[in-house]
Amino acid sequence: MANFDSSQRDGFSSKFGVIAAAAGSAVGLGNIWRFPYVAGENGGGAFLLMYLAFILLIGIPVMMSEFSIGRRSQKNTFGAFKVLAPKSRWSIVGLMGIIAAFAILAFYSTVAGWTVEYLVNAIGDQFSGKSKEELGADFSSFASHDYKPLIWQMFFMILTAVIVLAGVKKGIEKYTKILMPILLVLIIAVCIRSITLPNASAGLKYLFYPVWSDITFNSVLMALGQAAFSLSIGMGCLITYGSYIKKDNNLFKTSFQVASADTLIAILSGVMIFPAVFSFGFQPDKGPDLVFIVLPNIFQTMPGGYIFSIIFFFLLTVAALTSTISVLEVVVAAFIEELKMSRKKATIVAAASISILGVFATLSFGQMGDFTIFGKTVFDILNYVSANILLTFGALLIVIFTGWRLGKSHFYDEVTNQGSIKQPLFKIIVFIIRYIAPVAIGTVAIASFFVKDLL
Ligand code: PHE
């Protein structure tokens, strides 16, 4: 098979650019907003251990698979399967990825919109002197407001579209390179404040000490779904980014570095949140609003809290933005290459149609709060289904594709850059991709489907 090459394609210009863009995609609300409450609802330390095992055993191999598929095919997530497995049904995996992109961006942009409101509140010094009850009430009245959260959501979608419109090098790479390092420094600063609060150790114990009796089949699935969501795997986001990576990039090294950065930031987010949760007497399993109530509480007790709160919500916004651009790019790249649209048209059509779905997610906290299916709001469904079903099954199909269809020699070529770099772990990686990862993902997915909370 030819090594598909299209030299006029836009792409990343440097190694650091690749890491920044891929880590920018991975690190986002999934780490700072989603990880702490999902861990809180599913067993704390025991959840963390399962999560780490999934990152290592499934996350990194799937990430390498996606980068390889993308770089080999030089195509978007849908086109990649058409090129690598012509006349087969494999492109359905790409289609699933595009559906996942719609589902994720719709609810993600709701939360991203909240972060902008909170940035504005931080600038206006709105948290100081408020009790945790007042901060809680402020959050609910904002989230259920008729139009405010919608305006911020639109604003965020437009911002995302503007960067995607600028292209890969001059948009995505340029911004993520500046923004990601700042994010890390700031999270560390807030962590330091959090662990020096009174009773911080209770929070650290909760995060790190495993209580296995809290684990159910559903929480194993949640750990797997969270690992996939956080690494941006299972929907072709990294297939799309992989198609922009230069031929001399070491894909194993890149995957390892991106997964490590992502995991580090998830753990740091836990260290930032849980000590504060315990210190202020919150419940660790409070759900999606945890970050928006607990963090303002920390800020008002810290010296320089005003400045910190501004920087923090700015960075949370940025972390969200570097992820939303990667999700939108999945759809835009597919529209450009498969439907022959211009980048401009593709971006507008994709962003506008996702925004319509997004309105329903946002209204789940207000006007449409009573509209539920199986007791879940539209927001909850998009949130649960995208990570636990679409990304999980997507990851399963991607490893099966790489292990059994792509062909070992093509995968070898990508992982070793046509044999020019050594990859001593190659055999182990292939074994994981062929057997361990599919069996592990399949077992968790099927078991949790049939055996609801039996453990
Ligand atoms: N990984 C991102 C986060 O943790 C979310 C995301 C999921 C981005 C899937 C792209 C694809 O916030």
On the 0 to 100 scale, the average pLDDT is 90
**Nearest-angstrom radius of gyration?**
21 Å
The CATH architecture category equals: Orthogonal Bundle
CATH topology annotation: Hydantoin permease
Structural class of the secondary structure composition? mainly alpha
Q: Give unreliable regions as ranges.
A: none
Largest sheet: none
User: Which small molecules are bound?
Assistant: phenylalanine
- CATH class, anyone? Mainly Alpha
Provide the CATH superfamily. Hydantoin permease
Q: Tell me the domain tally.
A: 1
Tell me the number of helical segments per DSSP (H or I, 4 or more residues long).
18
Which overall shape is indicated by the principal axes computed on the Cα atoms?
A: globular
Number of strands: 0
Estimate percent helicity: over 70%
Order of helices and strands: HHHHHHHHHHHHHHHHHH
Cα separation of the termini? 48 Å
Report the sheet-strand fraction.
Answer: under 5%
Question: How is the topology of this model organized?
Answer:
Elements: H1 15-26, H2 29-41, H3 45-73, H4 77-84, H5 91-123, H6 132-143, H7 148-166, H8 168-195, H9 200-208, H10 217-231, H11 237-242, H12 251-279, H13 290-299, H14 305-338, H15 343-363, H16 378-406, H17 408-415, H18 426-450
Helix pairs in contact: 1-8, 1-12, 1-14, 2-10, 2-12, 3-4, 3-9, 3-10, 3-12, 3-16, 3-17, 3-18, 4-5, 5-7, 5-14, 5-15, 5-16, 6-13, 7-8, 7-14, 7-15, 8-12, 8-14, 9-12, 10-16, 10-18, 13-14, 14-15, 15-16, 16-17, 16-18
The chain binds phenylalanine.
